[in-house]
Amino acid sequence: MEGIGGDGASAAATPVNQWWQYLSMLYQFYLDKSTPHTVYRWIGTVVLAAIYVLRVYYVQGFFIVCYGLGIYLLNLLIGFLSPLVDPELEPSDGPMLPTKGSDEFKPFIRRLPEFKFWYSFTKAFCIAFVMTFFSIFDVPVFWPTLLCYWIVLFVLTMRRQLAHMIKYRYVPFNIGKQTYGGKRTFASSSGTRAD
């Protein structure tokens, strides 16, 4: 008697749940494998963005979707360029940015790590691309006005971000390990190897 009411629905849902769990594990597996391949991930994203731009150009619409996408990408960029702990708002005992030349060097820790930035960036383009297939999102607007609004917003936001970077003396980009010349021998400076 107990198995009649509840087991039928759960038995039918079990293959669907197993299939969904398998797909999510497979998706996470490939996402994890792509983590160290930064250049290839970004190349794929640029290709996806180019396809989206061509789609918008071809249909000559969905400018409000582009504006929303631009605002979201600007928000992601600000998170990518900002430190994890803003020295202006909350002083912390953990790693902080040096504020004086005599302070000890502390590494720059982003508020939005590169992988999450890339993932959100790519996901936003995928969602915007799918939205271009539904006419409900094709709101008629005068696109030059939206473009001007976005440019003004971008300039004001980046100016504020650059002022913050200058004030607290941090560079959010990892240029790489600094190398030093060391001692040079006469043979190495003349172009021949001294082994």
Characterization of this structure:
- The protein is an all-alpha fold.
- The protein has one domain.
- 62% of the residues lie in helices and 0% in strands.
- The chain has helices at 2-33, 38-59, 63-81, 114-131, 143-168, 186-189.
- Helix 2 (38-59) packs parallel to helix 4, helix 3 runs antiparallel to helix 4 (114-131) and helix 3 (63-81) runs parallel beside helix 5 (143-168).
- The protein is flat, with a radius of gyration of 25 Å.
- The model has no long low-confidence stretch (mean pLDDT 81).
- It is a multi-pass membrane protein.
- InterPro entries: Rer1 (IPR004932).
- It is found in: Membrane.
Give the structure's gist in a few sentences.
This is Protein RER1. The protein is mainly alpha-helical and 195 residues long.
Pick out its properties.
62% helix; mainly alpha; 195 residues; single chain
Tally of strands: 0
Q: What is the subunit organization of this protein?
A: single chain
Mean pLDDT: 81
Overall number of domains? 1
Secondary-structure-derived class = mainly alpha
Relative helix content: 55-70%
| Count of runs of 4 or more consecutive helical residues | 6
Task: Give the SSE string.
Answer: HHHHHH
Overall geometry comes to flat
Radius of gyration: 25 Å
Characterize the biggest β-sheet.
none
Query: Any low-confidence stretches, pLDDT <50, length ≥5?
Result: none
Could you tell me the strand content as a percent range?
A: under 5%
End-to-end span in angstroms? 87 Å
Q: What's the SSE blueprint?
A:
Elements: H1 2-33, H2 38-59, H3 63-81, H4 114-131, H5 143-168, H6 186-189
Helix pairs in contact: 2-4, 3-4, 3-5
Protein name: Protein RER1
Organism: Quillaja saponaria
GO biological process, one term: protein retention in ER lumen
